[in-house]
């Protein structure tokens, strides 16, 4: 059955792969991110119906406007994939209030606002899928990404609370927790480490790959596989699904 889906952070990387997977599986896909050109490039590759809605989810009213636009064009959102996120590497004692606030705004507050806006229509319909792309940083601490880690721990708690609240409604809520994925965001991490340490980029990429016991980075398609599973399973809810090559065994 074709469903109305919304993917945030859909212009590249994981979000683009998830949009392609949902479209291939027959769903209508609304794509949002800040960069309209990237969204249109992704939309051009989708086999099914798509809707391009550029937005900055950290701006006041952006989330409400986004859902209003999807509903006006199609119907209420039935599958939400809250994927938009970003982080910076800064030692904890040097994190500014602005960095801290920005990390929480994008990685925690925006997903909260998306869930809050999506839930009433899903409850009324008796079916819905709430999926947040978190990180292994939602499960363990790591040096120099305290703000990102705090936000991802928070969003996993949000998902678990939503799952408990919605357990008898036909609406599921899950987080997907990838390790290092081969994406532009990881490339920015490589660039930051190279700038800070002076080490070659190839060496840093190899180091990040080696953090996974399988010895390589996770692919965006493997994360899309997890999203597909969450959509298909009515009994899978309240979980933080690790897609990490065995990094976090929980």
From TrEMBL:
GO biological process annotation, one example: monocarboxylic acid metabolic process
InterPro entries: NAD(P)-bd_dom_sf, Sc_DH/Rdtase_CS, SDR, SDR_fam
PROSITE patterns: ADH_SHORT
Superkingdom, natural source: Bacteria
Pfam families: adh_short
Signal peptide: none
Molecular function per GO: oxidoreductase activity
Keyword line: Oxidoreductase
Assigned protein family: Belongs to the short-chain dehydrogenases/reductases (SDR) family.
Protein name (database record): NAD(P)-dependent dehydrogenase (Short-subunit alcohol dehydrogenase family)
Species this protein is from: Crossiella cryophila
């Amino acid at each position: 059955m074709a469903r109305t889906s919304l993917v945030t952070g859909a212009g590249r990387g994981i979000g683009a792969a998830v949009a392609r997977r949902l479209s291939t599986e027959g769903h209508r896909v609304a794509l949002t991110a800040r960069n309209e050109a990237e969204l249109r490039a992704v939309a051009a590759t989708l086999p099914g119906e798509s809707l391009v809605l550029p937005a900055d989810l950290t701006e006041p009213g952006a989330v409400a406007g986004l859902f209003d636009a999807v509903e006006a064009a199609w119907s209420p959102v039935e599958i939400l994939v809250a994927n938009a996120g970003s982080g910076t590497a800064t030692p904890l004692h040097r994190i500014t209030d602005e960095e801290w606030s920005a990390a929480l705004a994008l990685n925690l507050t925006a997903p909260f606002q998306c869930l809050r806006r999506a839930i009433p229509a899903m409850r009324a319909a008796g079916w819905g899928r709430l999926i947040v792309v978190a990180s292994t940083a939602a499960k363990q601490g790591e040096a120099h990404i305290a703000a990102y880690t705090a936000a991802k721990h928070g969003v996993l708690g949000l998902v678990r609370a939503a799952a408990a609240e919605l357990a008898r409604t036909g609406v599921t809520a899950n987080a997907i927790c990838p390790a290092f994925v081969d994406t532009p965001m990881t490339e920015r991490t490589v660039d930051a480490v190279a700038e800070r340490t002076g080490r070659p980029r190839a060496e840093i990429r190899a180091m990040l790959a080696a953090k996974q016991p399988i010895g390589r980075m996770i692919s965006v398609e493997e994360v899309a596989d997890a999203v597909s599973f969450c959509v298909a399973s009515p009994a899978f809810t309240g979980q933080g699904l690790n897609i990490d090559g065995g990094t976090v065994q929980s």
